[in-house]
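How a chain folds remains the central question behind the approach discussed here. For one protein, we set the task of working out the structure tokens from the amino acid sequence alone. The sequence in question and its structure tokens are set out directly beneath this paragraph.

_____
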Amino acid sequence: MSFALVAGTAVTGTAFAQDAAPADQEATTLDRIEVTGSRIRSVDAETSQPVLVLSREDIQKQGVTSVAEVLNRISAAGPSINRTFNNGGDGSSTISLRNLGASRTLVLVDGRRWVSSLGGSVDLNTIPSAIVERIEVLKDGASAIYGSDAIAGVVNIITRNNYDGAEASAHVGQFSEGDGERTSIAATLGANTDRSNVVISLSRVEEGEVMAGDREQSAVPVFGRNDRSGFSANGKIWNAGPGDFSEFTIVPPGATGTGPAGQQRYSLDQFVPWSSAEHGYNYAKDNYLLTPQTRTALYLKGRFDITDSISFVTDALYNERRSEQQLAGFPLSGGPALGNAANTVLSGDSYFNPYNTLYGGDGRDVTWSRRLTEQNRVYQQNVKTVHTYAGFNGSFQFADRYFDWDVGYNFNKSDQEDAQIGDANMLAVAAGVGPSFLDPASGRVVCGTPDNPATPDVNEQNIIDGCVPFNPLAPAGTMPQEQLDAILFTAQDAFQNRSESFTANLSGEIVELPGGMMGFAAGIESRKESGFDRPDAFVAAGYTSGNSRLPTSGEYDLDEIYAELLIPVLADVPGAQLLEFSVASRYSDYSNFGDTLNSKFGFKWKPFEDLMVRGNWAEGFRAPSIQTLYRGIADSYESFGDICSSDNPGLTATIAAACAADGVPADFIQRTNGGDGYFGQTIYPFSFGGNPNAGPETSTSETLGLVYSPSYVDGLNVTLDWWSVEIEGALSTLSVATILDECYAQGNQTACSLFTRDPVNYQITSMILAPANLAVINVEGYDLGVDYRFPETSFGRFTAGLNASYTSKYDIQQTETAEPENVVGMYFNQDPNWRLRANGSLDWSMGDFGVTWITRYYSGLVEDCGFGPLCSDPDRRVDTGPAPRNKLGATTYHDVQARYELPWNGTVKLGMNNVFKKRPPTSYTVFANSFDPQYDIPDSSYIYMEYVQRF
């Protein structure tokens, strides 16, 4: 199927069978292969589990430059992090099958584990697409075969093997708006001798940025509204005493101040009342919409046949990723009223304080805020991934039985260095907003007071603890560079993830049964995982304007043993052209939480040649990650609605009574960074941390399906599979809303102990958020695959395909006792729960020409909406009261590629993705850009050209 939407195992099996030896040869001479989902090598590539195969040719028809983009297009993929994640992204890209989370999808490379992040997911950007021969996606649980993480499925990336020749390729493209340029070049060389093969590949990918301000939908904080940040580019002060939040802002740039150039002060009569429409800042335009990155990779793979039946095999990879995210200048503030330390208020003795007594004021300290628009926040990553595998494999015959074996050592390490540019050193800020005055001798503003001046150095710079007077009330664009240099700093963080393992496997034949030879596989694995996060010392100490976090470090090891049997019961009898069963079990012993045993059972039945019925039942588990176990306390400014706030639309008498019992007054109003009101970002950091007592998740997976290849319609293959995954003890961190509901609505005192309120203003000032085995998830649906290769005509050959995944149930229980919530068709922030995803393709080829048309479909969604008339259904009501919603319409993208085979063994391709410049549906609950980052960049087609030269 042209879009790599091979319709499950039926087509996969056909494709592999064509590479096997003729049927009239002895079975032991046929090529035995290992298909993802089983360790038993077999000449039959059809298994009891649904496997989707994406060939190299299929991948190259999509016009993409990364493995992540390929995988996130398949219909079984749920939302996952990618390059459109700017605020909250780190340049990595992952895959989440069934929308069960990237850490519940096991990623293998050549059947072996790859290095994962501290959170347990694999960054697909560490795997260059140039080395990929094919990708096998097992859409079923497989912990009995592979161990932890294989709950939602397995992605097995098969690299190029036994390649002989040379190939160079180039990809150049950009969006129709003239931005987001991409360049990819790769060269691969392979050589064979009688006893060996070596493959070397070098590749580089450069992907440029797209600015949010360059697309209408993302150019403002909320599309369709004139929202602005309360952190103005001009300095803003809260004028009065405690409890009085009357807001003022400085006059626009151009106002006449007094004092030396670049250090002017402004009197009160130049301040005007704050107006969001007039003075609020549009931070969205400064952000990346699509983040830039470059990836450089060197890959080596080799095989040497020591004897006719024993080979030494090795492969190695070095991959370097440099990526970047950009946000608007930091929204800096000072004073405890805005959640800062008391010493960050603008001192009444500051030269820049309009209430300074030297200029006729009353000397009061003032709370202030200002966005540092003179310096954007930039986050840069340099990630170096190293992989090495060395081992031996071979085969032998014993007692007329055939056996395969392999032993090897696998090592993966990823080192990451991060730079955070544009955060403020709050020690320097606190010193800078302290007392200062205009020194008549030097004509400069210096720290201290006239009675206690700073001692200047030879350059007349004040040197009290490195103090430079800071003016947070400077108009937009007038902040002196000296002041910026004094308060800004670049944080340097370091991360490492490391995985090493020893494996040994044996597979072969046992006894002859009526259906054929019973096959088996068995093996052992010993593995160690370790990693750390070492934040900048200032970040760890909490001296920065950004979120602080403490170091994370941890490791664990495990030993595993598994066994698998393939039991062919019947073959070539009436009602059972084939009937076979498979069983497997894996025992894992972890150093941190203990042991676990997981098993599976599957069957495959062909009542007649055209039809195969298949099914599978499997236990699964996911071990807690290093971050889950050992994460250091980290700050996060969460957006939430305080259930006790009097403007809470869901406030009930029960909740009000519980809040009153906690001392919260009836007229209490939640205060957030966006101003007064319900549901905004807290002004106080909440604390995320690890849980060393966390245990593994457990799951049960079931599939039942059929593969139909009617002999009367040559070239047609249809697969239909029902699937179900139930996860118990799912690791989750309770949301702020759930904790508050448990406390005030359910009376759970344990939940109440997780947060504290200020005894004066009753704002929630702290909350502890840590993962635990709390949730239950139950997901169910259907997969459909149709592939039809039309008979060849005088007009060429046509191939059509459809691959769809329909989710009928996605129940989530936050705790075991909570009521399940079916979220199918619901949209939550950066979490679309599509009911249906489908991909269709039509491929035409004639001689040296070929054209592929691909269609990608995302079903509609609905979201809770509090944006009044912007909501598609603002008047919706339920039994408990108003419940406005917004509909996110279904979205369909169209991609096209045309290619031509040149006489000199070259191929040229021209393509366009999102041909009709489809705009994604607007969301009012998404965190940024007004559309979910899983959709394509709005109002743009991606146009590209590729050239491949083979030698």
In short: The CA atoms of residues 514 and 570 lie 5 Å apart. Residues 1-30, 456-464 have pLDDT under 50 and may be disordered.
